[in-house]
Amino acid sequence: MTGAVALQAVVTGVSIGVVYGLVGLGFTLIYRLTRVYAFAHGDVVVGAVFVSVLAVIGSTPVARAPSIPTSVGLAVIAPVAGAVLSASTYLLAVRPYLGGVGTTSGEAVGWVAGGIAAGLAIREGLGLAFTQQAYAVPDPLHLSALKASGVVTLTGGATVPVRTFGVLAIGVVVAVVAHEVVERGRIGLALRATSDDAEAAALLGVPIERVVLVAFLVAGLVAGIAGLLAAPAPGRSLSVDAGVILGLKGVTAALLGGLGSVRGVLVGGVVLGIVEQFTVAWSHLGAAYVDVVPLAILVVVIAVRPEGLRRRVPEPVL
Amino acid sequence: MNVIEVAGDLYLLLAALGLCISVQYADLPILGQSAFVAVGGFGTLQLAQHGFPLGLAVPLSVLMACLGGFLLELGAVRLHGASLALATWGLAWLVAAVLAAFPSVSGGSQGLTHETPVRFVSHWLGVAVTITPTAHLVIAAVLCGIVLLALHRLDRGPVGLDLAAVRAGPALAASLGVRVGARRRGVLAATAALGALGGAGSALLLGTVAPTDVSPLLAVQLLIAVLLAGSLRPWGVVGGFAVIAALPHVADAIATAAGAPPQRVRGAVTACLLVLALVLRGVLRRFNVGVRLLGLAAGDDRDVAVDERAPARPTTLVQAQGVRVAYGAVNALDGIDLELRSGEVHALVGPNGSGKSTLLRVLAGAVRPDSGRVEVTANPTAADVARTPQQTVLLSGLTPLAQAAVGARASMSVTFAGLRHLVATPSSAPYARALASRARQQLAVVGLRHRAVANPAVLGAGEQRLLQVARAAATGANVILLDEPAAGTSASERTLLADAIHAYAGNGAAVCIVEHDMRFVRQVSDRMTVLDAGRVLASGDPETVRRDARVRRAYLGDEDLTR
Fold it and tell me: Looking at this predicted complex, what is its ipTM?
């Protein structure tokens, strides 16, 4: 592997990794508040994109640069759709099986199965409208138009699509805003109080039910943005079924970052993205391993350190 | 429906029954059964293509899956409920990704093939057997029947008792001397093996296995079959699986009628069924349908004397020195020294939050101290330490007699007790009788003999406390730690409890109780230690401690303890 290819892998990896970080961010947020793994989160990401496409363009999108009204429509509807899908998943599939906010009491198999059913429903429901194997999703953000040639030449001669840098920039901005919301301000205080001790927070007047719903809404909002960043990459197409793997990569990012802070999950995502791109670029492995390596990392990490690589959540003792 | 379809469904039923062992018997939510089915199917056909005879390829692939189950257990030690579900869900997708990425393993989207009908040829034995679809049908049906009967029988033996404790919680099971790790290993290996066997059988029946046959959707469908069974294990799985077997036909009919892609409709119907399974589960639980009490099969009602150990001279059984435990910034225990002697009842008292329960957990080995040492004299015949938790935890679905028998297992451990019970060796019936007899004996000690076969849900709060004590004492442990055993008991039950505690000490056990009822403490204890904010405030015989001015100030606000 030459230096130029390595640099290309790093730049691409960081950009993809930020998207994984955003997916993982929603997962982390939900986990911290409810100790629930959001099994449907990946399907929320992909679902948000396809819902916005269906609403604005219809069921046969083409990869042409969309007009301004179409772009605005996509950019607005995708995050909203993500928020709605995420909140409905919580209300319909997760909440009925929880013992209470912030507890893992109640039966895990209930909300695990609920989450999987919700993901399956989103996937197959959209699959009825979008019958092709995969679709080229138009880019409402017009990030490729940043530069006439559409590519940036790195030192050493390798090229990276200019869109990559746009994704990186927007991803970081969204993450910073999310970090501010979660860690500071009134909402942040309520979120952290609920995540520390839901029962005590409730006694102190924090409306924990609403806080959890807000967390699912925020997670869905960020998921919608992540979907818009990931989906329209040039030369790639998005399948309705891509959600599960994307979600599991987000989970991996969250676990690598320690299931704790927003910053951690972003770092975890970037690490995962770089590893993935090096896997693809390395001649001994190659593109076949693009999903295999991250999933293997997930299985190993969760088996070795289920609470994530950094933070230790105390287990309840008898 | 033709023979091949039915036989194929029966092979998948085998995988569902395997999954049922983990999900229903051990409360381990496994979402990756498709991975083990894949190992069986692809493993068998790959080995066959590499020249292995089928008689070797099938067992080898099943063994590989078993190994996977073992590895999973290594992780499962630390995995609680949902994280195990996430890990196995990841595993299912990992296997799917590997199959998609490597056509050399999976044979591409077309999958691997093998000539049908399968011929088993052994030059050594000089036989060649052709397995027709009808023969497959018989083999699959017989295998399913064997598994169903074995599960039915195992549930009523020592393994069933152990697993009931595991379902109530690994910590509780361990406190009753159940070897949780070994049981989970067995359960996961069985799940994996049956999954692989189903996969291998199905691949040989159809002569092909493709990645889409073992997608994670299969794992979800098998889980639905198990969930639909509700508490009617293992027979309910057959009914649950019938629904899953009908799913493709119904989905395809809907697809044809609506003109929608069949794969999509199958997925959507699966999602609906999963929701339905969850709803039904809740409904069944609410009406308590199908709750079956697990009793002990054998056992005569002869009175057996309480085992009299020779009251040895008091020896120190537990020695704790300088024990410190911190929860975050709070020092729950701040340098505790404590000694428990055989034949002595030692009471731990102190205000709420003074560290009593934490100290019991440390003594039981459930919490590791940040510093300091705890030495427990090993008990060669049974468990070292038994402990009752502060809140009542009942083993649902077990009669009080069976609950005491769970504890008694620890004092009468027999290698391969479950296996011996399964095949009914000559020693298994006497073992069951001895177990029942010891359990009955322990119930008699706490005065619950007349409740031996009652539904535990109808026991009063005090009776449940007594049962919990009997269960712990039945382990035969030298050291018995009781956390607020008298909470919620009536006056007469407290007398029974006091008598039982004296009986345990009289038999040479070291008993340590945490209790707020001072009169009860005075009634039973030989020594008393007062904790305050994680330190020992006073320790000694109850009369001296009670007069200690500091104790009265800290704990009782100058109230007279003798009142």
Answer: 0.91
